[in-house]
Structure formats: structure tokens, C-alpha cells
């Protein structure tokens, strides 16, 4: 299991642990996603991500976690959404899209804990994640929903009646809290 000395867990005002992650893609088509082996269960795949450090912005934490866990760098894209894990742990995870531009042969978690990484077609990744990490599978489902019904990753909502005070559009972050 991965152990990080001096790791400080950070929480938001509602008691949720602050986390960040990236869906890492081979290219702009976003049809192949990079998964990494779990530190707790090395035979299972997960989306790379982890806790935010104090004073760290979500986008910076996402890029750092991907570098540590998957050994990749890339072009950070849009915020896909903010996901809440309520079942066993109270986590609130900011999930970004990242297009990989550099892949290291050896990286921190590969050397320290033997973590592996592998590219999967999105549909296959959803099936793999569904059994043990359904929230991670939900990240990819949101991606598919956004791709088929959005413009530049922003969720478009139908116009509200004139007397309604709800927003006429929503960013992924705002939509996740409804």
C-alpha cells in the first residue's frame, strides 16, 4: 500500500476530503484513457488521482497526482466535473481532462510501489471500473454525456421559463451540486 509521510489530508467546509484526478487521454479524440493499478489492490485499475495538499488548487493537484501515479505529463483541459463519494468515505473530487504529451519510463509510484499503467478504450475502461470503482466509471460516463450533448465540455441546459430563477446554462462544477 502507498504510504506518504507528512501527507496532510485537506477538507472543505462541508467535511468532504478534497481530491483531484485526471482522465488522461492519448489524444484529442478522447477515445483511449490511461488507468493505473490500485495501490491497495494491484490487480484492479483506477483513475489516477488523490488528495489535495493545503493551499493547493484543484488543477495543480490533479496534474501532480497524475505525474506521481501514472508518470505522465500533458496539456490540462477542461474541468469535467466535481464528484462526491458519499458511501464509505466523504470525498469531493475535481476531475479534469488531460491530453498526454509525455510518458516517463519510470516514475515515482512505479519505482516505490510497483504501480502499472495501461491504455484502455473508454467503453472497456467503464466496464473495468464499474465493478470496484463505480464513481471512477461515472467520470467516464459524464465525459460521454458531455461529448454527445455539450459544447466544449460545458453542459447545456434547456432554457428555463422566464419566471424561473434557475441559470440558463451551467458549468460542470455548478451542475454537480444540483
Which stretches are poorly predicted, pLDDT < 50 over at least 5 residues? 1-5, 150-178
Number of helices: 5
Secondary structure: helix percent: 25-40%
Cα-atom radius of gyration: 17 Å
**Main sheet properties:** 7 strands, mixed
Question: Mean pLDDT, nearest integer?
Answer: 82
Amino- and carboxy-terminal Cα gap: 35 Å
How many distinct beta strands? 9
Strand residue percentage? 25-35%
Order of helices and strands: EEEEHEEHEHHEEH
Shape verdict: globular
Class inferred from helices and paired strands: alpha+beta
Family: Belongs to the Nudix hydrolase family. DIPP subfamily.
Enzyme class: hydrolase
Region (Disordered): 154-178
Catalytic activity: diphospho-myo-inositol polyphosphate + H2O = myo-inositol polyphosphate + phosphate
Tell me what you see in this structure.
The structure is a single chain. By secondary structure, the chain is of the alpha+beta class. Helices cover 28% and strands 31% of the residues. It is built from five helices and nine strands, in the order ββββαββαβααββα. Strands 1, 2, 3, 4, 5, 6 and 7 form a seven-stranded mixed β-sheet that branches. Strands 8-9 form a two-stranded antiparallel sheet. It starts with 16 loop residues before the first strand and ends with a helix. InterPro entries: DDP-like_NUDIX, NUDIX_hydrolase-like_dom_sf, NUDIX_hydrolase_CS, NUDIX_hydrolase_dom. Its cofactor is Mg(2+); Mn(2+).
